[in-house]
């Protein structure tokens, strides 16, 4: 085709602009196969059909060695498509329905968009990153589209970078890292080893086997126990926001030789793997900062610990959910506890995501809460080619530096990626601005290094975390209290319940009990309104996901006709005639820690 000037926000600023050529690449030699979707694919397809494509699609940039021809690049891409069934997979489905099956093509084509430049912009790597990120816009057509959008950036015909956007239904961060490594090896003329991990169709068969189904059931029971008893928000505090709406958070990156030395030293001294020590330090600091007795954190990369999926080019994106009780005397005791807790979380990271969300919805009503995926810790440092993006991977001379990067939408409160642990500790953090000021975010990562240094020198008392790290716990007013294992603001409960019942007068009473968590009783003055405890409860739980922080449903609803003359006095509400009362829940819920 005739080259034409490229148009788009990532290329318009250049002079002269690059020319665009589309190359169609044919592949053949694989096997045609069909089967059900995997649990990881079903989980991501659910998000793809629901979420903004720029949030759910993923991208990577692969540098091309100098002297490589465009033909060599397309040959390597073709070889990867033939080698990995996931790249030849589509998900046929009728309109309005989610796919339940996948089809692997034996042959087909994909396109490569070639942007040829007279010269690349001043920061070529950053420019390549912007091209890859821009390609995430637009939803992938799951039933027919090749699941990778490929742009080859060239200078006077010489390849420099391949910018790629992937459908999250066929790849995750680990899969992109594997493909990047294999692409580099193909360009270097190396022969790739035989595949040892399962392709998606075979993985789906394992998951659907009796043993796989038992594993899924066990995982759901594990998750339900945490969702019923653990804190519903890690960062429950007056300035916090629930994950009902995303925030924009800037990337904060730590590169620290100090941290790497300290982590290695703490691992040697405690006799535990570095990954376990780092996880313990993360959980200790998160729980300390949040003022919680336990840390609940999602660990997305955990489900690649088994050899059958370690190098699968597919999406295994299902969280392992770690619930770590931090009520121990010393950091060493926490490290010892972390090992078992992490293994338990890993063992329960394979599940039917549709049934998981049904269970979450059920617990929302029965417990009167909404679980917030507040904290995510993704350690990809053990991958063969860690996904470090286009930021120079050889910048390992910094004793310690913190650098700010671009913002992105954050559907959680605290997200961390650990890219390397040696020769630097390299972690990127996204912290919600509603919970962390920029100074607090920097202090959190610096405090993590300080904790590791202290742990390398000796055992650290948990009560000394503020002194050792400089990180201060969340500040809550005197009205905040712990109810059912969660930090709760009765004022926030009253305000949210009042909105839920259409502005009727509401009073929330706290009942203290020796040796037990306080209980919340809500009084609602109906006037001429018709309302039941069940209707009040369901109206409240519908608002909780997007409500302010610190909202948990009362244990009991008491309906009266009119408010007392002194509505600020709980005893005045208690003296009124009761029209109706009850929990509002569809079944009795045990409240335990």
What do you see in this structure?
- The protein is α+β, with helices and mostly antiparallel strands and 593 residues long.
- Helices cover 34% and strands 24% of the residues.
- The protein is built from 17 helices and 22 strands.
- The protein has helices at 39-50, 53-56, 70-83, 124-134, 173-187, 200-207, 210-229, 257-270, 274-290, 307-310, 331-347, 353-368, 438-457, 465-469, 490-500, 533-543, 570-574; strands at 4-5, 19-28, 33-36, 58-63, 89-90, 101-104, 107-117, 148-155, 158-166, 247-256, 294-299, 320-325, 375-379, 400-410, 414-420, 425-431, 481-483, 486-488, 506-513, 516-525, 556-560, 578-582.
- Helix 16 links the parallel strand 20 and strand 21.
- Helix 9 packs across helix 11 (331-347).
- The protein is globular, with a radius of gyration of 26 Å.
- Mean pLDDT is 89; it is low at 1-14, 385-392 and 588-593.
DSSP strand content: 15-25%
- Give average pLDDT, whole number: 89
Strand runs, count: 22
Count of discrete alpha- or pi-helical segments spanning 4 or more residues: 17
Indicate the low-confidence ranges by residue numbers. 1-14, 385-392, 588-593
Cα distance spanning the termini = 67 Å
Tell me the Rg in angstroms: 26 Å
Shape call: globular
């Amino acid at each position: 085709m005739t080259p034409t000037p490229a148009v788009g926000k990532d290329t318009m600023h250049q002079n002269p602009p690059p020319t665009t050529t589309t190359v169609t690449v044919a592949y053949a030699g694989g096997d045609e196969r069909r089967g059900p979707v995997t649990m990881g694919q079903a989980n991501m397809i659910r998000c793809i059909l629901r979420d903004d494509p720029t949030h759910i699609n993923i991208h990577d940039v692969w540098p091309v060695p100098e002297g490589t021809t465009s033909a060599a690049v397309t040959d390597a891409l073709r070889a990867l498509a033939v080698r990995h069934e996931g790249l030849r997979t589509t998900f046929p489905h009728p309109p309005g329905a989610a796919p339940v099956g996948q089809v692997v093509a034996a042959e087909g084509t994909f396109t490569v968009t070639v942007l040829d430049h007279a010269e690349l912009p001043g920061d070529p790597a950053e420019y390549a990153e912007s091209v890859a990120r821009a390609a995430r816009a637009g939803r992938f057509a799951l039933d027919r589209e090749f699941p990778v959008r490929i742009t080859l950036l060239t200078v006077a015909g010489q390849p420099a970078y391949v910018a790629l956007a992937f459908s999250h239904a066929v790849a995750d961060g680990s899969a992109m890292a594997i493909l990047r490594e294999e692409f580099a090896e193909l360009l270097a003329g190396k022969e790739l080893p035989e595949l040892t991990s399962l392709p998606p169709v075979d993985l789906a068969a394992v998951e659907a086997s009796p043993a796989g189904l038992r594993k899924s059931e066990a995982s759901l029971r594990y998750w339900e126990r945490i969702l019923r008893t653990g804190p519903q928000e890690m960062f429950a505090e007056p300035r916090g926001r629930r994950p009902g709406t995303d925030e924009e958070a800037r990337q904060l990156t730590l590169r620290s030789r100090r941290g790497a030395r300290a982590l290695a030293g703490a691992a040697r001294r405690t006799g535990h793997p570095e990954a376990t020590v780092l996880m313990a330090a993360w959980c200790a600091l998160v729980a300390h900062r949040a003022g919680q007795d336990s840390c609940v954190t999602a660990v997305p990369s955990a489900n690649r610990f088994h050899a059958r999926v370690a190098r699968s080019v597919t999406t295994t994106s299902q969280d392992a959910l770690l619930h770590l009780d931090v009520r121990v005397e010393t950091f060493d005791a926490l490290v010892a506890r972390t090992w078992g807790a992490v293994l338990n979380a890993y063992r329960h990271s394979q599940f039917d995501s549709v049934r998981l969300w049904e269970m979450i919805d059920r617990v929302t009503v029965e417990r009167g809460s909404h679980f917030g995926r507040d904290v995510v810790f993704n350690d990809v440092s053990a991958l063969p080619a860690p996904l470090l993006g286009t930021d120079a991977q050889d910048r390992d001379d910094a004793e310690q530096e913190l650098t700010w990067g671009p913002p992105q939408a954050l559907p959680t409160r605290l997200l961390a990626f650990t890219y390397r642990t040696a020769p630097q500790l390299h972690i990127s953090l996204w912290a919600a601005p509603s919970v962390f000021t920029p100074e607090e975010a920097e202090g959190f990562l610096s405090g993590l290094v300080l904790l590791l240094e202290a742990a390398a020198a000796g055992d650290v008392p948990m009560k000394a975390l503020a002194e050792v790290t400089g990180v201060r716990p969340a500040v809550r007013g005197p009205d905040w209290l712990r109810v059912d294992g969660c930090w709760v603001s009765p004022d926030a409960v009253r305000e949210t319940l009042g909105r839920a019942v259409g502005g009727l007068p509401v009073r929330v009473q706290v009942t203290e009990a020796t040796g037990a968590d306080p209980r919340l009783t809500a009084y609602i003055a109906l006037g001429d309104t018709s309302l039941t405890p069940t209707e009040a409860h369901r109206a409240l739980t519908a608002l909780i996901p997007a409500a302010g922080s610190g909202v948990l449903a009362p244990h009991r609803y008491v309906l009266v006709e009119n408010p007392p003359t002194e509505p600020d006095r709980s005893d005045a509400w208690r003296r009124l005639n009761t029209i109706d009362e009850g929990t509002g829940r569809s079944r009795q819920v045990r409240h335990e820690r």
